[in-house]
Amino acid sequence: MRAPVTALLGRRARLRWVHLVLGGALLMPYWLLGTLVVAPFAGGGGMFPGSPAAQFGAYGVALPLAAVTALVPLARPMSVAAARTLCGVAPERFADGPAGSRAARARTAGWFTLHVGLGGLVAGASLALPPFAVSVMALPFSAALRESELGRFWSLDQRWLVYAGVPAGLAILIALAAAAAGAGALLARLAPVLLGPTPADRLVAAERRAAELAVRNRLARELHDSVGHALSAVTLQAGAARRVLGSDPGFVAEALAAIEATARRTVGELDAVLGLLRQGEDDGELPGRPGLEALDALLAAAGRHVSLTVRGGDVSGVPGPVSREAYRIVQEGLTNAARHAAGEPVTVTVERHENALEITLANPLPARPPAARPGGGRGLRGVGERARLLGGTAEARPVGGVWRLAARLPLTGGAR
């Protein structure tokens, strides 16, 4: 007994009933316009023709008018807002934003027409049937009602029919609730179909998510390379200074100066990345990113065991995107060497060819491999991503007792 009552009068059914009544209210302007069209053919001079045929004629004129106005792109977000709140359908099954394609606008027009069409019928019945049902139920208990037009209509010259008014009135109310519940369930079933995302909407959403993910990955690479390298360099310099604190004051001063320079440079890079995060968007280029012109300072901060060889001419004329990604690749290679082969000599070779820039970092493998860091391994993945964004290649692997990181970047690479 409880389940049928809940299906007809539960919270979900009541909300859907309200949604249908809202549809009836939205139908009214179109119905009033329909009465102007139907009135000359209704046989009466008034604006509101009284015959049921004329009323339904105005209703038939109103529905196409509603469909045409629902072709406006903004009709979809308004319909979605009402359906999300009142239809009892999961919010993620609806499309977001205005209808951008012809198919989406057609679906919205179909939904709006169905909503106002069913809503008009249910709202009209909700206004007319409850008073009628209550009056019929009161016939056995009111002599005035039995003598009224309603009593004469209901009895049909059979007085005993008056006493059937109570169950008949209840049946009318139950039928109204069942009709409203059925219409609401139909709208709830069709809402994801007509107001859900179209294939074009899904494609736009997928492209937007891919763009957002690309920006997040790019910012993550910048933070990993700049901050990770700085922390590794500062750790090494501080450790070396601590070991010779009493015996080599000159080296300690040099190490502290390198720590200061590294921290100052990294703070500037960190501010640039965090500025983009605060803005919540990617404007095409991270400001303040260093390039190959800053390579000498980077290697100087890394320590005396790092040597640089430049071949093929001056690298200052390398295109900006290639120069900046090359700097980050060298930075990540030095960070890896500092973490996994601390104290071992590192050779950095930058060779410029006619159409490409080749970067090679090599250092001896340590006698005892260090323990793997939890969550590590993102740096080399970032090196590969940087190279691929420019249409180049990168690999890192041991070769004959030497760890070798090599990257080739086309000089006509994109502007990422």
Structural description of this entry:
The protein has a 5-stranded mixed sheet. The relative contact order is 0.07. It is of the alpha+beta class. It starts with a helix and ends in a 6-residue tail after the last strand. The chain folds into 2 domains: 2-197, no CATH class; 204-410, Heat Shock Protein 90. The model has no long low-confidence stretch (mean pLDDT 82). The chain contains 13 helices and 5 strands.
Chain-wise SSE layout:
Blueprint: H1 2-9, H2 11-38, H3 52-69, H4 75-86, H5 102-138, H6 143-147, H7 149-155, H8 165-195, H9 199-243, H10 249-279, H11 295-302, E1 306-311, H12 320-340, E2 346-352, E3 356-364, H13 378-389, E4 393-399, E5 402-410
Parallel strand pairs: 1-2
Antiparallel strand pairs: 2-3, 3-5, 4-5
Helix pairs in contact: 1-2, 2-3, 2-4, 2-5, 2-8, 3-5, 5-8, 9-10, 9-12, 10-11, 11-12, 12-13
* Class based on secondary structure composition and strand pairing: alpha+beta
Low-confidence segments, ≥5 residues, pLDDT <50? none
Q: How many DSSP helices?
A: 13
The CATH homologous superfamily name of the largest domain equals Histidine kinase-like ATPase, C-terminal domain
